[in-house]
Amino acid sequence: MFDAIVYQDRRNKLRSMLKSGLIIFLGNNESPMNYPSNTYRFRQDSTFLYFFGLSMPGLAGVIDIDNGKDVIFGNDVDIDDIIWMGPQPSMKELVQKVAVIETYPMAMLADVISDTIKRKRAIHFLPPYRAENKLTLEKLLVIPAASLKDKASVELIKAVVAIRSIKDNFEIAHLDEIMSIGYQMHTTAMKMAQPGVYEREIAGFIEGLALSHGGTVSFPVILSKRGETLHNHNHSNKLAAGDLMICDAGFESEMGYATDHTRVAPVGGKFSQKQKEIYQIVLDTNNAAINAIKPGIQYRDVHLLAASVVVEGLKSIGLMKGDTKEAVAAGAHAMFFPHGLGHMMGIDVHDMEDFGENYVGYDDKIKRSEQFGTAYLRLARKLQPGFVLTVEPGIYFIPALIDKWNQERINSNFINFEKVNKYRDFGGIRLEDDILVTETGNRNLGKKRIPITIEEVEKTVQSK
User: Fold this and answer.
1) Residue 55 above 90 pLDDT?
2) pLDDT tens digits, residue range 99-134?
3) What whole-number distance in Å separates Cα of residue 304 and Cα of residue 329?
4) Out of 89-93, 201-205, 263-267, 332-336, which region has the weakest mean confidence (pLDDT)?
5) C-alpha distances in angstroms, 454 versus 186, 220, 256, 299?
6) Same domain, 152 and 273
7) 147 and 34, same domain (yes or no)
8) Residues 223 and 202 sit within 8 Å (Cβ to Cβ)
9) How confident is the model at residue 86 (pLDDT cuts 50, 70, 90)?
10) What is the pLDDT of residue 254?
11) Same domain for 180 and 319
């Protein structure tokens, strides 16, 4: 946890941004896997973590804007719990760690909410994403669960996004620190990328590394030799010499902060010439996009720059043709690069996307494109110092998409389908880094960049 004053300052800042009323933050509860006492790993709600810092089930936080009070609701454990859990600190002891003075049993939350409704005071809440919290809010607020998303406070959403988007020095230092674990996970995966090894062996090993550092993976590991499937969670394949292994994985710390990197390794340690050509285009795109990041630039423009580099690179090896600017405007690059360039990152690996991507990555001036590919861009708005984001361009050869565009003659003026068909079994390459926007430009988070050049990756794989 950060110092108590950090959480107090965050709550005070939020309080100053809303006019009046009561803000309620529900923490998460245990969620059963297959019977009540066999639960999934507990993960606290990220916004509750941000403002109230306590990572345990059964809590709710309230910020009373009008009366300047912060309250945490939660129950002390009883002897039945202690038998299974061991001695636990009291709620009064816990709340002191986050500079909260008042704490009451969870049952009293209903009374507070009921009194607030009677007094016709505003109640602000965020859109819930867990079924149990929807049911709790339905009962507390007397709002049907199906209507909660529409009734959520837009004023609160925008205020929280504004605060959480700018990472403070404590967050940046913590992110810099945990990047070393992401580095270890990815270099280990590279070294294990050898013929005869199953994908599941590598995926399991790097998840174990995350657990050994006191955290977990920041999302289910994506690791496969079938990289043309963007989020491939199948780990059943055996690696063979000549395969390309994509590894998209990150570490999540005990405080919930995430890393998120993607690297591609040649199984056995040598890229073929064909693989080198595509890999270098993706690497050039990654570097060009990072170099362009600075305060004041719209991330959509960085995405379109990346698309232009992809088109230029694919034209150089005969897979695309025509005018680059016209090809990007037509969305021709999206057959190879069918996703957005990146997303915000912080406590969530996709930071605050539980509020809705359009609140986090867009604003009143920047609206989402409807064009295939660009429509999937999660972050498009103007960048500010303190933003932490990912840069993850890719090139993929997706047979079903190639066939659809070829049959329907989509962007045939810009794509050489005859040559593209020779890459049907190529797979895909994505390269991803975590970037901090600074006052003058940007920097990679962490002490050193995970091996990324062709020479660095081959050397790392060969150092098994």
Assistant:
1) yes
2) 999 999 999 999 999 999 999 999 999 999 999 999
3) 9
4) 89-93
5) 15, 26, 32, 27
6) no
7) yes
8) yes
9) confident
10) 95
11) yes
State how far the Cα of 368 lies from the Cα of 96, in Å rounded to an integer. 43
Three-class SS state of 209: helix
Examine the domain organization and report whether 217 and 155 are in the same domain: no
Q: Whole-angstrom Cα distance, residue 301 to residue 281? A: 19
Residues 220 and 125 in one domain: no
Residues 6+ apart with CB under 8 A from 410: 335, 404
CA–CA distances in Å: residue 331 to residues 129, 189, 310, 419, 429: 33, 34, 12, 19, 19
Question: What is the helix (H) or strand (E) element at residue 117, kind and residue range?
Answer: helix 108-118
CA separation for the pair 319, 177 (Å, rounded): 41
- Read off the pTM: 0.95
CA-atom Rg of the chain in angstroms: 24
What Cα–Cα distance (Å) separates residue 383 from each residue in 65, 90, 163, 364, 438? 30, 42, 14, 14, 10
Q: Which two tokens stand for residue 106?
A: 């969870």
Q: Which domain-ending residue is among 165, 180, 208?
A: 165
Token pair, residue 371, equals: 């064009």
Which residue range forms the structural domain that includes residue 307?
A: 169-462
SS3 198: strand
Q: Rounded to the nearest 10 degrees, what angle do helices 169-192 and 199-212 cross at?
A: 150
Residue of 343, 432, 442 lying closest to 384 (CA atoms)? 442
**DSSP designation for 94:** H
Q: Both 124 and 190 in a single domain?
A: no
pLDDT-wise least confident of 188-192, 267-271, 365-369: 365-369
What H or E segment, with its residue span, contains residue 64? strand 60-64
Beta-strand runs (E) in 173-331: 216-217, 222-224, 244-249, 251-252, 261-266
Alpha-carbon distance 3 to 286, whole Å? Answer: 36
Cα–Cα distances in angstroms (integers) from residue 107 to residues 21, 23, 34, 74, 75, in the given order? 21, 17, 27, 8, 9
Q: Please give the angle made by the CA atoms of 184, 188 and 192, to the nearest 5 degrees.
A: 175
Report the distance separating Cα 202 and Cα 223, nearest Å: 8
Domain count for the chain: 2
Measured over the CA atoms of residue 269, residue 274, residue 277 and residue 282, the dihedral's sign is negative
Residues 236 and 381 in one domain: yes
How far, in Å, CA of 444 to CA of 260, rounded?
12
The answer to whether residue 188 scores a pLDDT higher than 90 is yes
Co-location of 192 and 325 in the same domain: yes
Query: For residue 93, how many other CB atoms are within 10 A of its CB?
Result: 11
Burial class for 69, CB neighbours closer than 10 Å (0-12, 13-18, 19+) = middle
